[in-house]
Amino acid sequence: MRLVVRHQTIYRYGSGSSRVAMLLKLWPSEHEGQRVESWSVTVNDEPVAQFVPNGHGDKDVLWIRHDRMDEANIVASGVVDTRDTAGVMTGLPQGADPLCYLRATPLTPVSAPMREALAALEHADDLARLHALSQLVRDRVAYRAGVTVAGTSAAEAFDLGAGVCQDHAQIFIAMARSMGIPARYVSGYLLADDDAGALHETHAWAEARVPALGWVGFDVSNGLCVTERYIRLAAGLDAHDAAPVRGNAVAAGAITVDADVRIDDSELSGGDARIQQLQEQQQQQ
Predict the structure, then answer these.
(1) Which UniProt keywords apply (predicted)?
(2) pLDDT digits (tens, 9 = 90+) for 139-197
């Protein structure tokens, strides 16, 4: 598929800010199932181009401003060619040792109820166990918006029995690590099946390391391995580590954040016209 994306995030600082620092993980990874045809990132209409590889093998940049700001308008847009690789992430840039992804974080603890649920998984090989784990999490944790927050841990969401894609991914990751399988959190974009189900925000899923295959992407919320409808942005130990935008501001007063993602399948010879249309759609919201 040829996917056209426009992702806009606007930070508004109620009393103005004297300093803003943001870590931007907004440059899509390249692998056998994903090739970046064109891509740009701007902050307040100024290009940001100094993206460099990080420890996970993805690209990021630290953007800093020391003068007064009332608003930071971040836009990532471009065209990405994708193909279905049955979820296998072959050809990813070299990152950290996979064993690093066995480490638990404050967002990915394993509770006693989670360990008890794992006891029911009796599949012989890792891939089968991971597919069963994905189904287990989906069955036990209903998709329900508004019941968890950014700081909700995997154990808390599992006990609650409800959450969103962030919670599904972190529960899967925590339980896979408990089985001795390296697993990590992935942020990116998903093209929904139709306009009625369109997502206007980033999506989250998990990758687990299978010895015979390498990294395999599991979207627990949708009950499948990632396909050509997904664009991979960044990986990390948890949602905080893989966040597309993360930062802080000094003397900012009240801070509000508005984010919107537009993604479409385009067969146009060039992506600029469709990006312009996506921009107009965002401005009308």
Answers:
(1) Hydrolase, Protease
(2) 999 999 999 999 999 999 999 999 999 999 999 999 999 999 999 999 999 998 765 45
Q: How far is Cα 57 from Cα 31, in angstroms, rounded to an integer?
A: 11
Return the structure tokens found at 193. Answer: 């099946």
> What's the mean per-residue pLDDT of the chain?
92
CATH code for 98-236? 3.10.620.30
User: Token pair 């907004």 is at which residue?
Assistant: 26
Phi, psi of 99 (to 5 degrees): -65, -20
The two domains 2-82+244-284 and 98-236 share their CATH topology (first three levels equal): no
The pairs formed by 239-243 with CB atoms below 8 angstroms and a separation of 24 or more are: 239/107, 239/150, 239/166, 239/169, 239/170, 239/185, 239/187, 239/204, 240/105, 240/107, 240/150, 241/105, 241/185, 242/25, 242/56, 242/184, 242/185, 242/186, 242/187, 242/204, 243/25, 243/187
> The tokens of 161 are what?
């029995």
Q: Pull the structure tokens for residue 68.
A: 């007064």
At residue 53, what is the residue type? P
- Sequence-distant (6+) residues with CB within 8 A of 99 are 182
Q: What is the SS3 assignment for 15?
A: strand
Per domain, the residue ranges of the chain are 2-82+244-284, 98-236
Fold of domain 2-82+244-284? Immunoglobulin-like (2.60.40)
